[in-house]
Write a structure and sequence with these properties.
Structural class: mainly alpha
Strand content: 5-15%
Number of helices: 5
Strand order of the largest sheet: 1-2-5
Radius of gyration: 58 Å
Order of helices and strands: HHHHHEEEEEE
Distance between the termini: 46 Å
Shape: rod-shaped
Number of strands: 6
Number of domains: 3
Length: 386
């Protein structure tokens, strides 16, 4: 049951008047007693109204409604009822403003969520398009490399075929020259034999000498022919060996060039993969920082702080807003203002958890203000990570 006599002086006055009722005239005593009771009711009504307005300012609407009901029980005059009506109007306005703020916050959160989803979808589509473009470019580059290698290999095959045809033509030409030389020498030998046979009867001795000379000459020519044929064969084999070495050298150079191209291609792929991993990590860090900033902004706009008198000390506490995701460690910087004071008292709640306004748990002590702690208006200046 609430105390009907909250002020000691008035309680003493009421007791004195009750005692005087046995001594003074009855009519005058009753009027004094009624006035004293009215004063007590008005003081109780004013205290209830002040507490209700404090609860309205702190948005503790159940507390405000309870205090207004208490004030209505002890309201007597029309002025008291008008003050109560004014407080009820303030309560209704604050409730409406609070509900409007909550609706705006919900709508803002929904809008931010839609915007975040839209941005993520755009980023995902852009990433998919970039990935498809890179894959197409890599496929085109591989196809171009394959065509270049095929063309180069076909060119080398054509050069080898041309070289072989040239070697065959040279071998045929050499064989034809040898045969022509043989035929020419044979014709000359036949002509000389016929001439010797025609002159045989006339000069046998001379013919024999000529035959010996012709035989010797033929042997010399045959030896020369044999030496020439051997020389040509050696030159042909030397040329063939030289061309074979040249072809082997070209093949080795081509294999080294292809190996170098394959190593360069592998290096380009490794660099592209490293770049993609780096970009993905940078994007992840940027997303985390953006989400932290969004959470800090929601906390900055949603945290509600108040002050309380805790055994002669002034403590500041408050609540975290509902619906804020995450569990990061935060510090809340604030300023407490007395009514009409433009300077205020600055403070910072380290590792803020939000256990409401009170003397125990997550509270921060500040210097003693010039007004009552319950009259302080505490504004959030900033919210930062620990």
């Amino acid at each position: 049951m609430p105390d009907r006599w909250p002020i000691p002086g008035l309680r003493w006055l009421a007791g004195a008047l009750l005692c005087a009722a046995t001594l003074a005239p009855q009519a005058a005593t009753q009027q004094e007693l009624i006035r004293a009771l009215d004063e007590l009711d008005r003081e109780e009504m004013l205290d209830a109204l002040a507490e209700a307005r404090s609860c309205i300012y702190k948005r503790r609407f159940d507390c405000a409604d309870k205090q207004l009901k208490k004030a209505r029980k002890v309201a007597n005059s029309g002025a008291d009822k008008r003050e109560i009506k004014s407080a009820e109007t303030e309560l209704a306005r604050e409730v409406a403003a609070y509900e409007a703020e909550q609706a705006r916050e919900r709508e803002e959160r929904r809008r931010e969520e839609r915007e975040r989803e839209r941005q993520e979808e755009m980023e995902r589509r852009a990433e998919m398009a970039e990935r498809r473009r890179q894959q197409e470019e890599e496929a085109e580059e591989r196809e171009a490399n394959r065509r270049d290698l095929a063309n180069h290999f076909q060119s080398k095959l054509n050069e080898i075929a041309a070289f072989q045809r040239n070697m065959n033509q040279q071998a045929q030409l050499t064989a034809q020259l040898v045969e022509q030389a043989k035929a020419q020498k044979q014709a000359q030998a036949d002509q000389r034999a016929a001439e010797r046979q025609r002159q045989a009867d006339e000069r046998r001795e001379q013919q024999l000498a000529q035959q010996r000379q012709a035989q010797a000459a033929s042997e010399r020519r045959e030896a020369e022919r044999q030496r020439e044929a051997e020389r040509l064969e050696r030159e042909r084999k030397a040329e063939e060996a030289r061309r074979q070495r040249e072809e082997e050298r070209r093949r080795a150079e081509e294999e080294r060039r292809l190996a170098a191209e394959r190593r360069a291609e592998e290096q380009r792929k490794r660099e592209a993969e490293a770049l993609a991993r780096k970009q993905a990590e940078e994007q992840r860090i940027a997303d985390e920082r953006r989400k932290e900033q969004e959470t800090l902004e929601q906390l900055r706009s949603g945290i509600r702080l108040g002050a309380a008198n805790c055994y002669g000390e002034t403590h500041v506490g408050g609540k975290l807003p509902k619906g804020v995701k995450g569990s990061m460690c935060i510090n809340v910087r604030f300023t407490a203002y007395c009514p009409g004071d433009g300077v205020g008292i600055r403070g910072e709640a380290k590792n803020f958890i939000g256990f409401d306004v009170g003397c125990f748990g997550d509270t921060t002590r500040i210097q003693t203000p010039t007004c009552k702690p319950k009259d302080l208006r505490v504004e959030v200046d900033d919210v930062v990570k620990c």
